[in-house]
Amino acid sequence: MASLEQQLKAIKLKKSAKPTSDFSNPKLGGFISEQEISDYQNSVLDVNTELWVDILKEETFPTKYCEITKEDANLFIEIYERLYKDIDESKIAGIDWRDGLNEQEVKQVEILRNRLQSKIDEFVKEGSDVFVKTSSRSAKDAPLVQKRFVDIFKKTINTCRDNSENSQISALLTAAFEAQRIHSAEEVFDMFLRSLRIYQDLTLARDNPERFNENFVIRKFIDIDIDMEFRGFVFEHDLVALSQYNYLIFSGRLLKEGKQISERIQRFFDKSIKEKMKQKNFPHDYVIDFAVCNNSTEEKIWVIEINPFLETTDGALFSWNKERHLLEGKEGFQLRLTKANKPGSIVMLPQSAKELLKKCMSG
User: Which PANTHER family match (predicted)?
Assistant: First the structure.
């Protein structure tokens, strides 16, 4: 069972000539030293959900925890490595992890599933759907390798006014978001055990036993329009830049209202976030994701997630390499939005997403 450090050192990635949008997977590039790996691991752990969610309990989604023990983490890691690691993504959906468990793993899964279900039921009994992630990230990549995602996507694309590239990507993102809506521990297991992101994060946590504090983070599911998510960059406690999160799509509404929305997010951050985070032993620099939600009576801004202020975090419409000075506030507040349809955006999607689009649109 290779450690994350061994895996990263073996990769020695060069920068790609064609960037891809991979639903917020880490961007790992260049030759990686042991110190860089250590810095990366600690930076990820420094912004784990448990370290900020209680500080911002009024500004983020209602949240409950279910502990992931070291034994639980090893269970997920071992199953992923045995069944899915290095397998072509197109084949993952056809491999049922339930058929690949030994007797002891079946018992472990059942115990953990029952424990997790009892926590999920606390939300379900209130009439709420839930979203489940680990202490670090979600299994956003899993829907692309689940059979049910295809049905959700087809239903979504049928509601679009046209089959343009922009509509296809919008439908893909909407379906990926909807696929995160769950009601049972069984659904969580099916996503987590197929997710490279979860495998990476649990491996990282396992490799840092002195800091191991992992949980299933169970959150009330809040409906969010895909053009109303934003990635903010905080440097020395100040929100210095904001980008459209799903930047491969063009939104006429966002182009029209973006400046006003940005100003509301800035006011929200300065009033409700900045001082709270300064008062705690939390990094001065971080990447923070916002959602703007509207109902019939009010507008609500939510904090979705906090990520490390590192090049491994997707810069959205900003370039860490070419525009770091902007992300450090050297030229005042910056707002970036996609201002027109982007012909050719599909090539920036992960290969599995491109294949899925091709299959669904031709079928």
Answer: CELL DIVISION CYCLE PROTEIN 123 HOMOLOG, D123 PROTEIN
Q: How large is the average pLDDT for residues 91-100?
A: 90
What is the enclosing helix (H) or strand (E) of 214?
strand 214-220
Which amino acid is located at 182 in the chain?
I
**What does pTM read for this prediction?**
0.88
- Name the percent of the chain lying above pLDDT 90: 70
Unique residue bearing structure tokens 């115990």: 111
* pLDDT single digits (tens) 197-247: 999 999 999 999 999 999 999 999 999 999 999 999 999 999 999 999 999
Gyration radius (Cα) of the chain, Å: 20
Does residue 54 surpass a pLDDT of 80? yes
Could you tell me the residue ranges of all domains in the chain?
A: 4-13+27-140+180-221, 229-336
DSSP string computed for 1-49: ---HHHHHHHH-BPPPSS----TT-----B---HHHHHHHHHHHHHT-G
Pick from 315, 155, 140, 345: nearest CA to 241:
315
* Listed residue (282, 301, 293, 287) closest to 239, CA to CA: 287
CA distance 229 to 95: 33
Q: How far apart are CA 127 and CA 182, in angstroms?
A: 12
- DSSP lists the bridge partners of residue 244 as 230
Among the listed residues 326, 304, 300, 299, the one whose alpha carbon sits nearest the alpha carbon of residue 315: 326
Closest alpha carbon to 177 in 126, 142, 205: 142
Q: What is the pLDDT of residue 362?
A: 73
CB neighbours (10 Å) of residue 45? 20
Buried b (16+ CB within 10 A) or exposed e, 200-215: bbbbbbbbbeeebebb
Q: In what order do the strands lie in the sheet with 130-133?
A: 63-68, 214-220, 130-133
